Amino acid sequence: MKNKISFRLVSLAFAGSIGMTFVILACALPQYKLWWPFFVVLFYILCPIPTMIARRSSDSAGGSNSPCMEAAIFITMGILVSSFALPIVLARADVILWGACYLTLAGNIIVYLTILGFFTIFDMDDSDYAMW
């Protein structure tokens, strides 16, 4: 069981590294040379915070469809949509090139799937890591 969990964590770390590599390439390649797309990393940090706060507060109240959890999911989706909209708006305003936009969007997809996988693994009750 521990080998299976360890493999999943290593896979998630690898996927997160690939996603961040796409975002860094969108900023650092010689034809792009602008670091504006790197601001999506702030969205990566902010995205899970509302849901984690709502889970912490709704555990004592009981019920999975509490208004607090619904508001947290709404805020999380707003952050997620904003992280996809930022590179598109920057590309349409000719601040960044479209290639940088595409690399950032690819990085967004990979990083958000990694975050989803992380919370799916840590939400399992039979895992040794569920105590975190």
Describe the structure in brief.
This protein is an all-alpha fold. The protein has helices spanning 2-28, 40-46, 49-61, 67-92, 98-122.
What can you tell me about this protein's structure?
The chain is an all-alpha fold and 132 residues long. The chain is 74% helix and 0% strand. Helix 1 runs antiparallel to helix 5, helix 2 runs antiparallel to helix 4 and helix 3 runs antiparallel to helix 4. The chain is flat and about 50 Å long. It is found in: Membrane. This is Leptin receptor gene-related protein. Keywords: Membrane, Transmembrane, Transmembrane helix.
Secondary-structure map with pairings?
Blueprint: H1 2-28, H2 40-46, H3 49-61, H4 67-92, H5 98-122
Observed structural traits:
132 residues; mainly alpha; flat
